[in-house]
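Researcher: Go.
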Amino acid sequence: MTMFAKKGERKRELVEMLDDDNVVGFLEPGVEVEGKLIVPAGMIILNSHLKGEIACEGMLVVGAQGEVEGEVHTKQISIAGKVKGSVHASESLEIKKAGVVLGDIYTPKLFVEPGGYFDGQCHMPTPEPAKHSAPDLGPKDRV
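Model: Structure:
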């Protein structure tokens, strides 16, 4: 969703998002939330201000006007707005061209578009080495 879209375009984008079976909710500008937001499945679109904690078992989209102050735990996150606090994304984290993250990131996959901003530490799990079984060397094969 674009921040400077015309009124008709914005309505059309909202209707398209509502038709997506994965979208379970969205918070638009003018809504202020304080506390803990729990999303057991699906996608939530946040285009407003939330202060507290987010626990999402699906995808969190922080829109261009979205702002989060607190800790985020999710599978996937796309940030076009601002997040102040640590972000734990078990699958992937994307910072869009105008997105801002001020805090530590914990994710195996990080994508930052040109113009995206990140100030903090990035913690990525160490990939496990491929498990190849070494051939069993018998007495005649040893040097």
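Model: The CA atoms of residues 22 and 42 lie 5 Å apart.
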